[in-house]
Request: fold
Amino acid sequence: VTLLLVSLGLALASALVAALLGPAAGERAGFRAATVGTLLACAVGLAGALQALLAGAEGTWALPWTLPFGAVIVGVDPLSAFFALCATAVAGLAALHALRSCDPGRAASSAPPRAGDLPRAARFASLYALTLAAILGVVLARDGVLFLVAWEGMTIASWLLVGHDEARPEARRAAMTYLIASHVGAAALYVLFALLARHAGGFGFEAIAAAGPMAPALAGTAFGLAITGFGTKAAFFPLHVWAPDAYPAAPPPAAALLSGALSKMGIYGLCRALFLLAPAAGPAPATWWGALLVVVGAVTAVWGALNALARRDLKRLVAYSSVENLGIVALGLGLGLLGRAHGLPLLAYLGFAGALLHVLNHGLMKSLLFLLAGDVVAAAGTGTLDRMGGLLRRMPRTAAAFLVGAVAISGLPPGNGFVSEWMILTAGLRGAGGLPGGAATAAVLAVVALGLAGGLAGAAFVKAYGVAFLGAARTPEAEAAKDPGGAAGAAVLAAAALCAFLGLQPALAAILPGRAAAALALAGPEVVASAGGFGGVAVMAATLLALVAGLTWLRARLLRGRAVREGPVWACGYEQVGPRLQYTASGFPEPLTGPLTGAVPRRLDRAGPDGYFPAAAHYLDRMADAAGEQLVVPVVRRFVAALGRIRALQAGRLQLYLLYVLATLVLLLAWELVISP
Amino acid sequence: VNLLSAILQPALHLVLLLALPPLLPGVVARVKAIVAGRRGPPLLQPYRDLLRLLRKGAVYGAGTSWVFRAGPVVSLATALCAGAILPLGGPAPLHFAGDVVAFAALLALGRFFTVAAALDAGSSFEGMGASREATFGALAEPVLLLVLTLLCVAAGGAGGAGGLGAAGFGDVLEPVGAAAAALTQPVLVVAAAALFVVLLSENSRIPVDDPNTHLELTMIHEVMVLDHSGPDLAFIEYGAAVKLFLFAALLAHLVLPFPAGPWAGAGVLVAGALGAAVAVGVVESLMARLRLRRVPQLLVSAGALAALGLAVLLQRGH
Reply:
């Protein structure tokens, strides 16, 4: 815990340094100092997390400091250490990338350099470090009040990150949506912790877990609140609406941090809540907990994948795939809970371990993809897939890394995403055979949803890869794109290498979340040992690579000395095949999304040109999120309208406010004197 | 004796996997010819075609990259790797808990690269085929997984540890086969029907796709590989044959009772695979292909069929 606390302190210090040094010694100095500090914090944090995970250093420490209602208690257990590992790994990779891509001196950021660019780099680095510190704080907190303080700090720092590019209206809008959604979620968490504290008589996590069994109704309510509150951060359907706007609005390294590490805090919170709501000593969780998570996860995963497939903007596509993957994590957690509910520790272990491993895997591959998307957008000068094309020849390194990420995130072997999805699917298949009727149906639902989401995600990423990187360049800008160099390239290659490594060494990968999952599943070492198949997956991946290498060699051998030439591609005898004949990002998914316009609606906004002397004309073709439009917006509208009545209280007159103060005082006095005794 | 079977079984598996697949398209073509009143090409014609292609040079589309060249290699490699996982009348050389999932994922990887290679050609025809393949593949995958789930549930807790069901082909197919398969378990007939639809769709057969069509606009798989030639085309054709063989073998395991012993098992498997090829040929002769908009409905109905079977199984409490 010492190393992790040092890491937290370093991150805080970096934030402070940037904030102070920025105005004093120039933006670039502040930016660089803070980013290097963040990197250092990540390295220390990574070491601390690994030490805690592998050497089993755990414990709780109460710091001599008081909080109103709470206490400053920090601690490390396998769950904390695992999430700290994910967060520091992702934050480190993204910070390394930022060292190049956000450097005010190099100005390779997504927008063309503007006058307002320089003063903000130090602020960006400061907020980035602050977000990391808050994430570590959330992970380490062992007291409800401290947890909520860190949670709020995380929300506010990341809100400023989303809205960092404040000159753009869509960034401001996305940041506002994110802030509101986060606070709706946080409201549920306040109620949750208040309920828990009332039950246990204190906010400390240990006290809550030891407070004895809760009434089923209370536990159920608390679980529902946890899903709502933490699910908002994890972007579960239909509370995901903030995510596809927020990630693309943030600068690429911040998007990687948000999606790769921060949204995972929702999952962390959910797991932590399970320790509190369904402790080992208490009764098993009800079946409906797991079933609810499976249903939420299934809808989220399929919804995210379908929307990713429909998007034509690279960053948005990647953002929706985050929604999908958090749904997959929820499926794993749901299966784990079903295993807990029915006393099947192996199923519980497979589900929880798959979910946690997917958290790590998704963190790595999503930060890889967001960083690459940032590079591509910066190089091609646009986020629209249909204005890219042929980037593979211009950006070979980026293209190779993107292929690794695309295969991995589609859950295909030998990528790391396959390993965790394989664990969750295996849990589903085995659960379907071992669980009783209703719970088995939930397991089947998990399998089908994962299959459908996987198929759709594969289609989405083959589309993104094909349209952006393959074929011929569709615009002159795409023709002139170049690989980013330096730290950005190194960060991306490191992330891709980690994805490949975890995919090829599944047994090693499964060690990392192993103890946390065993604790969640109440599974002993013999159960963990019986969760086999990792060796088989490794052999399969090796066989596959050997076959690919062998066949490539065979083809080269066969073609040696024979005529190998290039010819025009076949287009029905038409020889002038130009880039405009290529399939587009909107055409590719049409057979699937065309009949589903209700789910992935297309909004056309066009005006003019009309009349003999046409004035300004515009044409805007965008995809909308049906869940946002039809589920969330009406509810929010109604809520706001209802609140409008209360606004009469806020009349804007000082005298009235003074009256309120007086009335409150009188009421309180009356309470103290008359009612209370 | 044990040592012998330890060598014999994998060797037999390998021979079956490598040698038998091209026979299946030959059988399909012969059945279609007979139904149409023609004599048709020789049964071994696909082998000759493959050899001929392997002896040729290659022409690559202008402006294509290494992804285009990787497509044929990966599609064949994934099919062969999936073949190492699937039991062919006896235990597979590579088996592990959850290999059922790996089987589906390997085939999806092959599709990913075939589609990427098609998009790399940069022609609208190949893009069109890629789009359709991605669509139908995305829909076929959950159906395949549903069928596999049904198998896992039907096999019951036979091979499963920790009070769970099984999820390995070895644990799933052998109990099912020993129980005289579909003959005694009506649910398996339903599963077989759903799997047959997936077979037709995944292998670009009528009524989903027509391998013999000459109009690019109506093609799916064929149009994606238009620009491959020579050894690349041989890899693709061979890989497609292996994939057809794998689905036929899975179907055979579902429907036929499998006796113990490597030779007898292999014999039943060959008979079953050829029988599946005959069935494909008959379907191709008797049906027209569906309109493209109808294909998703076909796949969804197959999924519904499998879901129905599963519901019956779960209702019965396995």
